[in-house]
Design goal:
Elements (H helix, E strand, L loop, with lengths): L3 H14 L3 H12 L4 H8 L5 H40 L18 H15 L3 E2 L5 E2 L1 H4 L30 E2 L4 H10 L4 E10 L10 E11 L4 H15 L7 E8 L2 E12 L6 E2 L4 E11 L1 H6 L8 E8 H9 L12 H7 L15
Helix pairs in contact: 1-4, 2-4, 3-4, 5-10
């Protein structure tokens, strides 16, 4: 009869040295398989006498049970080690930064509007606003537009359907109605700018049906054209961030100002680029003038006591000029790639002390 103690030591040793589940299963087959060592002992019990079976049976069965327990324990250890290795190899560190993705930015129009507000705020201007949907009085009549003025026609202005009284509301064609509302609601002196959206039926490379304007208004005693000229030349120099800006005023006509002018900036257009402050070309950037006495009178003020000047400029067009945007329509195309190229960081807010751009 095989020495059971020696056989058990061999089996337990083989189980302990099994390095993986495959080698462990080989030990199991060699001990408990059909031709295994322990299975052979169990089969040989039939040839033993009754007394020998009573003596050897419990010993052999105990060996089998201990071998099965040792195999189960080792198998659990190897499976746990294999799982730990798999988890380690498939580990994902959730504390790592997320993969880079396309980010937005501040639109050039909003950046330029903030720059303009910062400049005029330093010059003592407050910011005023008004509704996008206006009535005829604030958008046209109070601003000295004659009844048959072309700007009132359907091909220039977005009108709504007439109400029961026959009046038609409209999308404001400029932010000048804010000037009217301010003069009606506030007592002079007044010094405001009015940034906001405006709407006209126009669409090409330099015009869109919706665009942005900033208009300015100063009402006080003894205001003259020299104050207007200084204000605008100071603004243009600060906005383009150069002392080399050269401007000129050309006579023009606006119903709400008299005299009226357009301000041009000297520039260079050679090489497909626009360079402000050099060259022999001129570029129109804004319209301006002294507030018409009729406008002051329409707001309940005495034009013999109060005078003022006003100006208006397109924010989108100034953004094109300063930051080299070739087509105004691209600014409203909702293309995040365009914004990633021309956009600004939200943390780089323009200030008079820290710089504009």
């Amino acid at each position: 009869m095989t020495d059971l103690a020696t056989l058990e030591a061999q089996i337990v040793g083989a189980i302990g040295t099994a390095s993986d589940l495959a080698s462990l299963d080989a030990v199991r087959v060699s001990a408990l398989g059909k031709t295994g060592s322990i299975s052979g002992l169990l089969k040989g019990m039939g040839a033993l006498s009754p007394d020998e079976r009573r003596e050897q049976g419990p010993l052999i069965n105990g060996l089998r049970d201990r071998a099965q327990a040792a195999l189960a324990t080792r198998k659990a250890d190897l499976e746990s080690a294999a799982l730990d290795a798999q988890l380690a190899s498939e580990h994902l560190d959730l504390s790592l930064p997320a993969p880079p993705r396309r980010r937005g930015g501040v639109h050039p129009t909003m950046q330029v509007m903030d720059e303009m507000i910062a400049i005029f705020a330093e010059m003592g201007f407050a910011v005023a606003d008004g509704p996008d949907i206006e009535d005829d009085f604030h958008n046209f009549t109070a601003l000295n537009f004659p009844p048959k003025h072309p700007a009132r026609e359907m091909h220039d202005t977005f009108f709504f359907e007439a109400n029961a009284a026959g009046e038609r509301m409209l999308l404001r064609t400029h932010t000048s109605p804010v000037q009217i509302r301010t003069m009606v609601s506030q007592k002079p002196p007044i010094r405001i700018i009015a940034p906001g959206r405006t709407y006209r039926k126009d669409s090409d490379q330099t015009h869109t049906p919706m665009f942005h304007q900033v208009e300015g208004l100063v009402i006080d005693r003894d205001i003259h054209m020299g104050h207007l000229k200084w204000t605008l030349e100071t603004f243009v120099g600060r906005f383009f961030e150069t002392s080399d800006v050269v401007t000129r005023f050309r006579p023009h006509h606006f119903p709400f100002t008299e005299p009226s002018a357009e301000l041009d900036v000297q520039c260079d257009r050679t090489g497909g680029e626009l360079k402000v402050g050099q060259g022999q070309s001129w570029l129109e950037v804004l319209g301006c003038g002294m507030v018409h006495p009729n406008v002051i009178r329409n707001c309940g003020l005495d034009p013999d006591e109060w005078q003022g000047f006003a100006f208006g400029m397109g924010v989108d067009r100034l953004a094109m000029l300063k930051y080299g945007v070739p087509d105004l329509r691209d600014m409203f195309a909702s293309d995040v790639r365009w914004l990633s190229h021309y956009g600004f960081s939200a943390f780089a807010a323009p200030t008079a002390a820290g710089g504009l751009s």
